[in-house]
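Pipeline run #58 for the internal structure catalog. This entry was flagged by the ingest filter as a single-chain record with no existing model, so it goes straight to prediction. Upstream metadata was stripped on purpose; only the residue string is passed forward. Reviewer on rotation: M.T. Logging verbosity set to normal.
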Amino acid sequence: MPLFRKLTTAALVALLPVAAQAQLRPSIDVETFVQWPNINERYINPGMLHAGLGITTPLVRGESLSWVASLRVMGMVSGSGENADCLVLPGKTGCWGHMDVTPRGALLTGGAYRNGPVVLQAQGGVARFEREWGGAKNAPQARVDAAFMFHRHIGLTLSATRAWLGDHLDQSLQMSSAGLGLRWTP
């Protein structure tokens, strides 16, 4: 199995020319992503499509493993559906709104592993969400992403996040996302 892994890595490096030092420098990510809640979307409006801009920089550099920090700014590109101003819920009195939840930014830190043209990152930190009811909320967030550097300075990224926003309607509200973007390492 180690021989197969070495041959696969060698083939990827040969097919995708990448500077070995490219991931040891700061990078800029531009991505689009979709977001969804763990609670029925009848009660939470996650928006349709979001966009983000992020800067990642290594704090401690290693040959293949580094400690990195990221700052991300996000916003909604397109929404979905009409919001219900008043929902009557079984077992609850009064009106309950269909709450919009929009990500606004994140400050994360974690590890980055580079193997040839592939860079894997796992980070955790705090994300800021704007909520229609109850104001803005800082929430713990975990993020994993993979970058496939197809050029010396440019790569394709796939990402996934999970944030924990506390309780809503007596349930734990969690927001997940999946994204696709480009990474530029100047």
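catalog note: Residues 18-184 form a domain with the Porin fold (CATH 2.40.160.20).
catalog note: The mean pLDDT is 81.
status: ready for reviewer M.T.
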